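User: what does the whole thing look like in 3D?
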Amino acid sequence: MAENIVTIRNLSKIYRQGEINVTALDNISLDIRAGEFLTLMGPSGSGKSTLLHIIAGIDRPTSGECHVQGIDVAKLNESQLADWRNQNVGFVFQTFNLIPVLTAYENVELPLLLTRLNSKQRRHQVNTALELVGLAERKTHLPRQLSGGQEQRVAIARALVTSPSLVVADEPTGNLDSQSAQDVLGILQTLSKSAGKTVIMVTHDPKAAAFGSRTIHLEKGELSN
Amino acid sequence: MTIGTFILKNAMRNKRRATLSILSVAVSLFLLVTLLVALRELTLPPEDIGAALRVVVRSKISIANLLPAKQRPIIERVPGVEAVSPFTWFGGTYKNEGGLTFGQFAMDASKFRTIFGDSKMPEEQFEAFQKDMRACIIGKLTAEKYHLKIGDRITLVGTIYPVTLEFNLAGIYSGTIDDRNMFFHHKYFDEAMGDMGQVGMWWLKVRSAEDMPQVITTINNTFANSSAEVRAETERAFQLSFTSMWGNIKLFVGAICTVVVFTLILVSASTMSMSIRERFRELAVLKALGFRRRELFAFILAESFALAMFGALIGVGGAYLLYTFGSVSKMTNGIFITLEVTPKIIGTAITVAAGLGIAASIMPSISVAKTSVVEGLKTLD
Ligand SMILES: Nc1ncnc2c1ncn2[C@@H]1O[C@H](COP(=O)(O)OP(=O)(O)OP(=O)(O)O)[C@@H](O)[C@H]1O
Ligand SMILES: [Mg+2]
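Assistant: Here's the predicted 3D structure for the full assembly of 606 residues, as structure tokens:
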């Protein structure tokens, strides 16, 4: 059995809005194994995005612990966290979030500007990532010249280019037609199966969840299995 | 791709807005430079060597009060005085032009070269000027402006004095700090006015700079408590007191330009804020990808700085080219002969542009810092 890449213990996230407290995550404990393709499901407002954000180090828990590869992410300061994200996490968003003025190639190259790689090494990494998502021919295209499915594949290439061990995706097929969704899900599945990456994906769609190796359900901030 | 190309692509993503920001900076800096060179010119005392040895004697009451002609021999006897000439501003109109576009002074023609030693004029022209009572000489700039040549007839209609004077142009001089004025024989003026026995001012040449203080005090004291008290002062001090009459206009012009420049600075700053605000979500994505806050600040600063500097290049460079290679006296209708864009003025303008670039990036940087990745991702495009 593979080791755990993510270890969550008694994790809670409470939003304070004036007098009212909104509990987004309620005392969650969860282990995620390396190489797993975990899908998170649950009704709207159940805390799926919040959990994903905390694991990915863009949000902080109110209490409890979240260790990723042995590191207590919440204990890192802002700039350590930024470095950590750059090296360990790839992000895929529902709305792709490519930079509109950059070509597909440049969008993928963006996270590498923060590394010490020289331009030749960068070129190699970018080309490998674009080939992996099947868009080697679309390097010079701007996001607006690509279809939604292609944009999302560029976004996946951007998430992979730094070779992170963890890829998080928040409803990556939410804005895609079924064929493009299939393509994207296929790529994510390959990542976990062949490249050994841990993929955590939030989805509403049971068909999408079927691509994963395990599904967990959230309800009102609690795990319900 | 490098960080530099990334910043450039961001700055130019909305071409119309980038152009507008650059132009607004360019216009405001052009105005600023214009204001600064004009103010400098207005407050600049004459710098020629001769001015250091010239003394102006005028009525203590005001520059418009005349002085008795009989003061001349008394002033001539003051130790250290080399030459004295009456100096009366005629203030006539030429060719029915509304504004007085050049100064006309009646003086002792024989003293012209002594008092205005820096002037250059061919010998035969000077001789012709001396000989002919109705002759006049005129500065090169005015001669060029009206296409005047030796032998032309010039008619001046008095606005202060009820006479019309006719002159033969005998010489064209150059080399003084202000080659615009016209000089003619005081005798001709006296004759036309029926020997009124009064002059506008006395201008004198002092033998050496050391004699200057002594000459000034002696003349002031000599006429103290007389019916025509005088104020003697160096030409430099005189010009300064003269330009201080412009004080209110200067203040007025200065205030208007400051407001204009300030408004344009606000416009550029808000344009910058807007263009960053539209990119909040992208900036949040960059943060998620691992860019630190300070790197985002640097992007914003570099972008706003680049736009401001590009605007400065156009505005300041344009002003420099215009005032250095353009005909300033034509552009300003003779108000200014030269407008010198000094290194100091260029420095001031560039500093303002740099300040503007920095100021414009502060507000967006603060809001970017305040917004967490999660909040930023939720903002709509
Ligand atoms: N900034 C915030 N301030 C207050 N409450 C918040 C904030 N962000 C999220 N919440 C609350 O936390 C709960 C969980 O939100 P979350 O975005 O994780 O839900 P979700 O499961 O991703 O929902 P969806 O499927 O609609 O995306 C919701 O009740 C939400 O209202
Ligand atoms: Mg969500």
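In plain terms: The longest strand of chain B covers residues 164-173. The pocket of adenosine-5'-triphosphate (ligand 1) is lined by residues A 15, 17, 22, 24, 42, 44-50 (CB under 6 Å).
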